Amino acid sequence: MFNSILKQCTLSCTKQITVPLQFRCLSFNTASLKDNKELENNNNEGWLKKLLVRRIEPTKEQHSRMLSDKEVIYELQTHNVRPDSTDNYMKNYEQVVKLCQKIPNLKYELIGSWSVRVGDLDQYVHLWKHQGGYAEIDKTNNILLQNQEYAKLRNQCGQFLRSRHLQYLLAFSFWPSIELKSGSNIYEIRSYSLKPGTMIEWGNNWARAINHRRSNDEPFAGFFSQVGRLYNVHHFWCYKNLEVRTQTREAAWMSPGWDECVAYTVPLIKEMQSKILHPTPFSPTQ
């Protein structure tokens, strides 16, 4: 009986299988499959090249020296003001600015002063310029600490603040030189926290990217931190209003190559934020 069942199964398995007509023309070309696989790999490799960070070779030269002139140092002050003290704070800080302008031999120049309108509210940002490197900063600090009027204003200012932060910055050499603006403008500061060791890579990409953003005279200043929060980058942009800002940024995406610059720099960023700033009445740039 077992032999009879086995013979029947064998005959069933050896019968010819009829394939429907619509499937008879289907064939698998191994060469085509290989070509498709290579094309897919090439596409994936292209995207990976945009996402991966190029390795920076060791160098005996400081990265900051390769990106900037260290003889001009900028000071970025960020003050968080008590909401009920903004008017008193503004009067106090204007007095500080006027005092610094009167002190002889003080190489300490206010470039811009802004209030934050979108972002961290009740916050003020002040950008100062030091000529002569860190040696001149030491002299400036000594002069101000010995000035009784400055000490009085500084103590008064402390009553109006919730917190404050200071950074020393260097300007990127590939950014346009700072030119003070007039008229009615708004500013945007876009701040980036980068992964340690990626500042050169950031500079390499933005040296090309800045060329896509020059058409409307929007770049104001570009800095990276030296003292304070490290691996911070600050880009200042100037626009007539929020609508012009939107139109200008959308136009950048139409510029060939801008998308690649963005794709290369995004993997370098740990955190980023944007703030809209309005110049104070005593700001040298408006």
From TrEMBL:
Cellular component annotations (GO), alphabetically ordered: mitochondrion
Highest taxon of the lineage: Eukaryota
Domain (NIPSNAP): residue spans on this chain: 74-150, 187-284
GO biological process, one term: mitophagy
Similarity section: Belongs to the NipSnap family.
Protein name (Swiss-Prot/TrEMBL): NIPSNAP domain-containing protein
